[in-house]
Structures are given as C-alpha cells and as structure tokens.
Request: fold
Amino acid sequence: MSLIGFFDRGMSLGPERVAYVQGDESWTFQRGYDVTCRVSNALLAEGLAAETRCAVLAGNSPLAWLCVLGVWRAGLAWVPLNRRSPPADHVQVIGGFDVEALFFQKAFAPAIEMIRAQCPRLRVLVCLDGESPVAQSFEDFCARFPTEAPDLFPAEDSLGAIMPTGGTTGRPKGVMLTQRSLGLSVAQHHQHALRGG
Reply:
C-alpha cells in the first residue's frame, strides 16, 4: 500500500470523523482529504516530476502534515526538516538532497531568503500561514485546484522519503526509503498499537 492509502482508508471509513486535533481546532478526514488533493494537484501543475524532493519547515501542525500527505499523493518524495535546526543545517539538507519545493510557516521566514539563495534547485516556496515576500501564500498556491485526487498511484517501490541522518560524523547523509518500506513501518506500528504494546 502506498503511504497516502492509509489516510484514504481512514477517509473511506467516515469522512466526517475527526482525523486531527490541535488546540480548539479539529480536522475531519474530509477536510484533510480536500487539502491533500489541492496540494497534490498544485504540485503537479508546477511540473514536478515523480519522486521530486519536497520539504516542510514547520512546527506541529495538521496543515503541515497534510502537505506531506499531498506530496505523497502526487508521487513525490518527502524530506523531513527539524524545526529546531539552524538555517545552515537546512541549507545542507535542502541543497544536498536536491529539494525543489518547500512549505514553511512564517515564523521561519527570516531564514528562507538565505536558504533560497544557497539552494538554486529550490523553485517552489509556499508560506502556510500568511504572506511572505519570497513565497506564495498557501491559498494562492492551491485554493484554485480541485479536491479530487490526481489520477495516479505511486508505485510501492518508488521513493517515498529521504531521511537525513544525524550527521554526527560529518554532514547529514540521506537514507532513501520507498513507499513500501514506509508503509510497512506504519502497518507494523498499527499492529503493535492494537496489541497494546
């Protein structure tokens, strides 16, 4: 099963069930599904090829995670960024892993100009929660796109993510994980939770 298939399974069991909660705000599966479809269609409209690397620089946020799901729905690959890392570390990861699309919260905007200047392959920048002089707003990026999923299904052996290592012996290196390996990890975690582990 591809990674987005897990979310879609939840959606099929009840679109109006709550999928995510943050503070006083809740997100139903339907609302989340609509976001993932708009994000995926917007990314594809940018001409990003299959397995193109995309990153999200944000604190814990349902919208940030739904962008990751949108990346997977579009058949692209996620590169995680640690929000606590200094901008120089983000430059290493984004530049070193050839990231082409970056979603970020405006709290990180001061670092984005430096990141953009040093990462020439980065060409799609989207601010999740406001306006930014160096990026499109989230609404401008994807609000005009449909809430229907694109007609594609990522192959299980396609690249799903590049996970940075800790870099304790040098610059961070990237561990390439397929949709299958990440999906198996999710399934095993789910089975462990069901057993009360």
Notes: The mean pLDDT is 91. The helical segments are 3-13, 29-45, 62-73, 87-96, 109-118, 138-142, 179-194.
